[in-house]
Amino acid sequence: MASTENGVPTELVDDAETDLGPLPAFLGPMVDWVARLPATVHVKLLVGYLTIAVLLLALGVFSIGVLNAVDGQVDMLTTLHAQSDSARQMIYKVTSQSHFRAMALLTQVDAWDDKIYVAKGDFVSGLTAVRAMGVSPSDASLDELEVVNTRFEAESQIVSEMYYSGNLERAEDLHLQVEHETSHELEDKLNTLIADSNDKAVAEVQSFDDNRRLLTFAVAAFSLSSLGMALLLGAVLSWSLIRPVRRVDRALKLIASGDFDQRVEVPNRDEFGSLTTNLNKTTAQLGSLYRDLESLNADLQETVQRKVLELHRAARLRRYVSPQLADSILAGDTEVDLGSSRKYLTIFQSDIRGFTEIAERMEPEHLVDELNAYFTEMTDIVFRHGGTLDKYIGDAILVFFGDPVPQDDQAQRAVKMALEMQDRVEELADHWTETYGESFRIGIGITTGWVNVGNIGSSARSDYTVLGNEVNLAARLSDRAEPGEILVSERTMMKAQGTVSGEVVDEVMLKGVSRPIKIYSLTRPTEPPPEGDAD
User: Fold this and answer.
1) Is 0.85 topped by the overall pTM?
2) Of the given ranges (172-186, 266-280, 409-423), which has the lowest mean pLDDT?
3) Within the chain, what is the greatest distance between any pair of CA atoms?
4) Which residue in 92, 123, 131, 408 has the fewest CB atoms around it within 10 Å?
5) Cβ atoms of 155 and 178 closer than 8 Å
6) What is the domain partition of the chain in residue ranges?
7) d(CA 319, CA 60)
8) What is the domain class of 338-523 according to CATH?
9) Given a cut of 80, is residue 502 above it in pLDDT?
10) Residue from 319, 454, 330, 329 nearest 388 by CA
């Protein structure tokens, strides 16, 4: 058995010291000194972060200075090249003036003389741009260039006057002897400007190459020294804090595994000392609480299972009946039996007429939107009349009345619901026709008789549904009904007497029934509407 030190197993302490590797020997004195400082962990971390932040700030300031120096040289090179390009464009403008003058004198087309003054304007703009760059040459040299250009403009004006006065021979002499010579003088001065800019660019490139090596070395040295200092500070600070954390972590692992007899001590005089004291107290209390928790857990599992069953029951109910009825059943105000049994119910089924053709013509997303809107409206009407929603079968709706809650007036509820559905579909049809050019109409079939009802399916999945001849008959009636028509069986008609009227349209034979069953087509209620609903 391991020996103890102050009531703490030494095996725990020694193992904790080496969980993440040994402390480097050269860091030992510095780590011990930081650990013994009478300061809180917050202060130690704050000082460390501030020191690293100062190093990073210094590196950033130095880097900005270096970048500014490099940026200045790059700007100078860019300006010198731009100045050379402007000077070359100005030479082109001077040369083009001589060509335009020659073409004007030869062809006597005034448009060539107009181009001369456009080129002069471009030359003046280029000279202004070079002066704004302020790099090279001196303002005095640019002033001389401007004086020569002024003289050149005056000479060009005289030649143009001779040209427009019809004295072409005199205009040609002045062009060759005066104007052309002045253009060469301008070109010489511009070539001098280009050569001076190129010389300065070469010198700037050489200076950039010389400084680049120095700047690279300075940035690398400063970065490495700052990184080294930051790493050293981070290592010392982290080791001074991580050693007591390791001991606490090792003890917590054992406590987490269920060993609530563990106790831990650390030499620190900061928050870690207080932490271990509270940890030891907490461990003692956990041993007692754990035993209480085991007892509570058993009770909790039983409660959770009961609540899950209630939630499952609620979800199933809300799939079939109105929210109000589902709440009443869950509250215990209404008793129901969802087991499979044979009951006397009224079955309703509706079907959209021509749905297949409509689906082929409509965009899928529009069709889905309208079906969802249709099902929402119809489901609200089902729940409003107390019907139980069985399922959606494609575009058809299957509903039954009289279960899970018995209803003496189930047939009346079904036919009233059918009439309201037809009215609502008539209202929706206007919107569908206006929006999509398609008109939805539904046929409805209603029967009353004995069916099998309840949860039918497998252990993996089951549905609360109805089966039997009456269900099949309701489907046949809904398929046969014309758009907007409601067909009901003889039993349904008898149960709904006084609510609606109808006329016999056919007789059908059902399996297990010895006589034909009359089929009725419903008309509107025979009784007058209640007062206040006349509108």
Assistant:
1) no
2) 266-280
3) 132
4) 408
5) yes
6) 10-256, 338-523
7) 66
8) alpha beta
9) yes
10) 319
